[in-house]
Write a structure and sequence with these properties.
The protein is an alpha/beta fold. The protein is built from 4 helices and 8 strands, in the order βββαββααβαββ. Strands 1, 2, 3, 4, 5, 6, 7 and 8 form an 8-stranded mixed β-sheet that branches. The longest helix has 19 residues. The chain is globular and about 45 Å long.
Amino acid sequence: MSPGQAQARPRPTWGPEVLSVSATWGGDDGMPLVRPADAPPPTDYDPRFRFTLTIELSDPAPDRTLVVVGANPSTADEQSPDPTMTRLVERARGRFRRIVMLNLSPFRSRYPHWCEEAHKQQSPALLRALAENLQAAHKAMLAADAVLLAWGRAAPKTDGWKLKQDMLQAARAAQALKGAAHFPILTLGWTKIVPVWGQQPRHPLMLSYEQDFELYDERTPWLDPYPKPEAPLARQPSLFGADAPPTKPRAAHRLSK
């Protein structure tokens, strides 16, 4: 390594609380995700699509599966977690046996603006991957016990409305088959009401562990680009926590805005 050249930081590995990790991928056929003239550096995105990331936990917990819907995949894979997955594992311990991570978009990038750029270009590879991503979401939700909406404000703006509607319809279809008591639709609270964005289900990355799961409320105006303030959502009792073992105190992190 030449003087002054930064040494690559080693990637973290999954901790002992994780028993195994598997993923489903697409986009290995060489079809371009973004036009070469507009392509970001290869270190900023992955030429593959990630549809699902399944984490089996080693902690004793009821045999339940939590599906989480984020905005788009970051760097987590079978060998290494990213900060979001590390925090989701902590939230699920003692409550669920496994986590299945889904996303509104399967485009894998550390930076949401590159995901937005890919959606603006609407390449054939991306359009096909979006259809496969929705199929994977339906399959995962039908096999799960709960779904957590958690994409925050990082969803693509170009077709974010449709992506959210598709995921919510997949969740409602699974809930209609299983019943609300056996397949709750959850959030970690809601972002502040902002013009254009409305309210969005909060992302877990910068959220305090004190924020527990809440039942999704149909009255929350997250689909309205200019929503009117409504009565605050009543806090629900802790879900899936009655049979959870005591956990060690966790340091609070600053709340997301």
